[in-house]
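Today's session is about reading a structure prediction critically. Students often jump straight to the picture, but the first step is always the sequence itself: look for stretches that repeat, for charged clusters, for runs of hydrophobic residues. Only then move on to the predicted structure, which in these notes is written as discrete structure tokens rather than atom positions. Here is the chain we will use throughout the hour.
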Amino acid sequence: MAELTIIQHTTHPHAPREHHAQVRLLASRATLAKRRWRGVAEDGREFGFDLEETPSHGAHFFVDGAKRYVLEQAPEEVLEIPVATLEQAARVAWSLGNLHFGVQVLAGAVRVMEDPAVLQLLSREGIAFKRVNCVFLPLSAGAHHHHDPSPHHHGS
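Below is the predicted structure for this chain, in token form.
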């Protein structure tokens, strides 16, 4: 049986990198969000993760000799909504955010996970979309954090 390497910290994807051969470990977004999980890198090495924070797509987590191990989020099918103007992008993102769905905002498009409520909203509003298979990186939940300890309410 192969040795299991335990990882408790990852490094930011834009951290300085030495010259190493990159070895990928592919994981779903749901797996990356877990505190504890196991994964196997493309070279067959097995890792156990015990992390305090969700790692970023592209984060490196281990160096062994000339190899640098990197986490890559697996592509998934999501809805991509083309937007032509800043106003249109804001309206779409606000509508989806009001449903409490994470969105990824790109130049010219907004992405969201497929869900019956999202499909109903898009249909009702006549908003065009397409399904794409990509690495989905929604805005962090931390972007919605309130420092006010009072309960969160929409509207008045």
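Discussion point for the tutorial: Confidence is low (pLDDT under 50) at residues 142-156.
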